[in-house]
User: Which sequence fits this backbone?
């Protein structure tokens, strides 16, 4: 069925138009495209506007607000502000139970093995719905930049995402109104962004070390004659910058004997953000090994020495090195076979990452010339350009990160598609019945590396019926596994003697049904005008509340930097803005925000100048 794009502003029918590349990240997300004139990929936005924080604040009326405004609500509204939602995609409560204390919001344990749900006040959301809000924000951003409808996208996922997580990502894109043409692995995208493989005469073997905000994976690619072949991949979808922040918080808690169990979620979020700030400072300020940074928060003096940071995160760093060694072993390659190591993800800015990689492969092989936050989105844009038909000289051959198979007698896992198999792929095996006269057979599909299916993840099941009654062992049942370029599985089963056949695309119990998506899309269209108006008012109120909160805190801590007249005028503007919030006039609220922001902006610059002029050692940042 043909698809028609309509420009909502002009009401005109458009061609299918541009395909964007999207990096749906744990901490930040980015949308990119290939420039039609230069043929080069570029991110959409400038400066700080490039990164969209992957944070969703559920405001009054259940309206989700995404991005920087939401990020500022992490401390003021911790129970209704969701972060790191990517870590919840395609997961049940059982999957994340050991990490539930990491989140300030409530994750429901319904004990039914289905997708986790998140509670925010009286409203409930799945990670798919929340991820769709992030993707919708990126879609609108691209449309505002291009002045036309954007309906098609390539979305990246960590190489180690399993089938459930990939399906959940595709469902989120569909819910955001995007036709997701391809789900590609982040390491492959990163290689494309660096231009590796774009020269058909180039032959290289590349390691992509990708340490993001919430996930880690390492992949080894061989690129020859424009063909990208992933030789091996290893990773951990619960290892990233968030975990390094957590180690800092635990270090402070131990050193200062803090009983954080009695803290409010607002205080927990505040110290978590301070940990992230301290990490960024010690990783980018070119400190000596003995230097430190001192921050103030929660009525505490929080100190982090560069040497301490490396020591307390050594265990996490070693986990990434173990994955790297396993990937090398799987690929059957030695260090001398590697031509280049590409660093991807904001967490690779930590000096110890580059140092450890350089110690193994040599400094001359390490490539981090592109912005590690942007590189995956840029590569997704290149892949989008390939799918648009603008490049015909490149072929991507990814691999499936985990083995796929079915349950056999005794609860054993019979592997059909081994881990690190190149995709797309098709595998066939024959089975038979174990009981005389058996007329149906249940086929259960699993993913994982353990011998027993109970130790692996169940993806789905179906029953092959109408098998002719025959003695045990006589029927010939052929099971076919077909895995597409997105890494998503279809299973077919056929009794060869009778021709009885059944096919099912494995849709994990953690995903949304087509009916669910269709209903959500129809609801969004029906209530579009009201929702947009309510969203704009809620966003204005949220921004105003955050502005009042931030300025009031600034006055409490830095009153000595201001004159009495400045303090008085600031308090007056805060009072006026607070008064306008419940009145519900969007324009009046935004006018008050602008007035307060304009008046207080020089104060922040004054504080920053003082901080910069201080010595690095023992620098205090309030």
Assistant:
């Amino acid at each position: 069925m043909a698809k028609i794009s309509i420009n909502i502003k002009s009401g005109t029918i458009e061609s299918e138009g541009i395909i964007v590349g999207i990096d749906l990240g744990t901490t930040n997300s980015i949308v990119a495209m290939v420039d039609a004139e230069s043929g080069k990929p570029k991110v959409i936005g400038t400066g700080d506007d490039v990164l969209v924080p992957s944070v969703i604040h559920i405001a009054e009326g259940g309206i989700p607000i995404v991005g920087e405004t939401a990020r500022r609500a992490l401390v003021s509204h911790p129970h209704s502000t969701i972060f790191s939602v990517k870590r919840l995609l395609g997961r049940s409560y059982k999957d994340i139970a050991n990490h539930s204390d990491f989140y300030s919001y409530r994750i429901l344990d319904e004990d039914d093995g289905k997708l986790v749900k998140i509670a925010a006040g009286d409203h409930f959301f799945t990670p798919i719905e929340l991820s769709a809000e992030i993707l919708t924000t990126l879609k609108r951003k691209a449309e505002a930049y291009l002045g036309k409808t954007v309906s098609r996208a390539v979305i990246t996922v960590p190489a180690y995402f399993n089938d459930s997580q990939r399906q959940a990502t595709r469902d989120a894109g569909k819910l955001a109104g995007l036709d997701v043409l391809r789900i590609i692995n982040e390491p492959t995208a990163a290689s494309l962004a660096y231009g590796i493989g774009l020269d058909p005469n180039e032959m290289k073997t590349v390691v992509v070390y990708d340490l993001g905000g919430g996930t880690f994976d390492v992949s080894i690619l061989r690129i020859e004659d424009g063909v990208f072949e992933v030789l091996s991949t290893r990773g951990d979808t619960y290892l990233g910058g968030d975990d390094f922040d957590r180690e800092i918080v635990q270090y402070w808690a131990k050193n200062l004997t803090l009983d954080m169990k009695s803290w409010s979620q607002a205080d927990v979020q505040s110290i978590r953000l301070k940990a992230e700030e301290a990490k960024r400072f010690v990783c980018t300020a070119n400190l000596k090994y003995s230097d430190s940074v001192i921050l103030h928060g929660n009525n505490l003096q929080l100190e982090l020495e560069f040497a301490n940071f490396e020591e307390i995160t050594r265990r996490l760093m070693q986990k990434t090195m173990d994955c790297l060694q396993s990937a090398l072993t799987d690929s059957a390659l030695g260090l001398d076979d590697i031509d280049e190591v590409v660093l991807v993800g904001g967490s690779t800015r930590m000096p110890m990452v580059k140092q450890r990689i350089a110690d193994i492969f040599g400094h001359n092989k390490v490539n981090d010339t592109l912005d590690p936050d942007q590189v995956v989105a840029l590569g997704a844009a290149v892949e989008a350009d390939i799918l648009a038909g603008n490049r015909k000289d490149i072929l991507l051959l990814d691999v499936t990160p985990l083995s796929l198979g079915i349950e056999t007698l005794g609860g054993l896992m019979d592997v059909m598609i081994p881990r690190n198999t190149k995709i797309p792929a098709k595998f066939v095996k024959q089975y038979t019945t174990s009981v005389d006269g058996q007329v149906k057979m249940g086929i259960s599909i699993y993913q994982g590396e353990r011998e027993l299916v109970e130790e692996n993840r169940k993806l789905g099941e179906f029953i092959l019926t109408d098998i002719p009654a025959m003695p045990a062992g006589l029927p010939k049942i052929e099971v076919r596994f077909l895995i597409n370029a997105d890494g998503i599985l279809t299973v077919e089963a056929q009794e060869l003697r009778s021709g009885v056949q059944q096919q099912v695309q494995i849709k994990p119990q953690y995903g949304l049904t087509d009916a669910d998506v269709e209903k959500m899309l129809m609801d969004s269209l029906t209530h579009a005008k009201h929702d947009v108006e309510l969203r704009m008012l809620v966003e204005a109120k949220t921004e105003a509340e955050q502005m009042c909160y931030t300025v009031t805190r600034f006055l409490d801590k830095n009153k000595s930097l201001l004159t009495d007249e400045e303090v008085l005028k600031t308090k007056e503007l805060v009072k006026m803005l607070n008064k306008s919030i419940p009145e519900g006039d969007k324009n009046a609220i935004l006018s008050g925000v602008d007035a307060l922001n304009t008046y207080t902006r020089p104060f922040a610059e004054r504080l920053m100048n003082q901080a910069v002029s201080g010595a690095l050692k023992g620098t205090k940042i309030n």
Observations:
- Residues 528-558 form the longest helix (31 residues).
